[in-house]
Specification:
131 residues; single chain; mainly beta; four-stranded antiparallel β-sheet
Length: 131
């Protein structure tokens, strides 16, 4: 089972990138999918999450209005469209899958995921936003 993120790169402030996470080895159609990021010296944070059917999403406060998470169940992929990027978006971005019934709870500018069962984590893709 593998989750592979791609689409990162170097972009100027105000630019856009589209990250894609491809899952292989099993279907994640009934999993909650999330995008996380970790900047050097910082804790990892959940940037966006999408529920099993794709009709409910969560965004961290800094991503709202700029990022859009989407999923293609048939292709077993989840994308993160990032617009109006800022230097503070610079981080390693990675995707993860969480079992059915996972609950995403927003707490201020952060969120926690509560779940029972197996989770899957992919390797990241680096996003660097120059000022």
């Amino acid at each position: 089972v593998q989750l592979q993120a791609s689409g990162g790169g170097l972009v100027q402030t105000g630019g856009s990138l589209r990250l894609s996470c491809a899952a292989s080895g099993r279907t994640f159609s009934n999993y909650v999918m999330g995008w996380f990021r970790q900047a050097p010296g910082m804790n990892s944070e959940v940037v966006a999450a999408i529920n099993e059917s794709g009709d409910t999403t969560y965004y961290t406060r800094s991503a709202k209005g700029r990022f859009t998470i989407s999923r293609d169940i048939a292709k077993n992929t989840v994308d993160l469209q990032m617009n109006n990027l800022k230097p503070e978006d610079t981080a390693n971005y990675y995707c993860a899958a969480f079992p059915p019934g996972t609950v995403v709870t927003a707490k201020g500018s952060q969120a926690t995921l509560t779940y029972s069962g197996m989770d899957y984590w992919g390797k990241g893709t680096q996003v660097t936003v120059s000022s």
